[in-house]
Amino acid sequence: MNPWEATNPITIKEARDKIEEAYPELKPVKIKDLGTGFDHTVYMVNEQWVFRFPRRKLGLEAMYIENKVLTSLEKVSFEGGFDYPKPVYFQKGQDENDSYVGFSLIEGQVLTDLEDTDCLNEAAEKLGHFLKKLHALPVECIDAGPDHLNRLSTALRRKHFYVIAEEAAPVIPEKLYQQLLSYLDQLEEWENPAGTVLVHGDLHPKNLIAREGKLAGIIDWGDAHIGHPASDLSIVFQCISHEKRSLFFDAYGEVNDETIKLARFKAAFLNTVLLRYAKSTNDQNVLRWALTGLKKSLS
Is 0.90 topped by the overall pTM? Predict the structure, then answer.
């Protein structure tokens, strides 16, 4: 089975029927397909709400995490300078077939829809402030668990990284592919670092929203957890040019060499996963951004 294939597909009619039955105050529901993510089918409702339906079991787990974390951010009145979804509607059913969630709409385009793969340079300082504030939140006030997936462990993920790289190889230029293999060959082995802060956990261009070409919002918090800051700092090595990274770190604060090493690993891993996704789905926008991101993460 294609790893991105839905085991729980939901049509636009099925989604409308579910929403109207559960929330009659939204009738008549005007619904528009916003596409699919790795784990969810997404619809815009009444030009005001975004409803996410799990495409598979992993999507159900991510949906529960996202709802809890975003509810926690609302309770602590988090303001970081960028929009993030506000949880409004929540249906917790028996499984992924009858569970879904509705958030406030973050208007704009997914970053991968933009032509300019350097557009995040302009937001480097503001993004640094955002993550500094997010990582400073008291974790005892956030309903989030630890990193059970050991996302930053090369001891666990290095072998799988080679497999993903091989699967993505047909869409990676040969010179860049060899650079990636060289990076993997020289990669040190380490265990997952201790988690100390709330992290979004999955920052990459498909989870960033732009308005008028500028970063405006951060979506898809289903991988949020109490983890290591490097998990989020990976976005610097994916999307910000080398000469602009100092603007980010001037705002965020100084980090040590180990954190940079961890962040660069996460960036390279994420972009290789995105390249495999782009190959499987023939998504040329994701392909363009992921190739650029991989180059940046290895530079």
Answer: yes
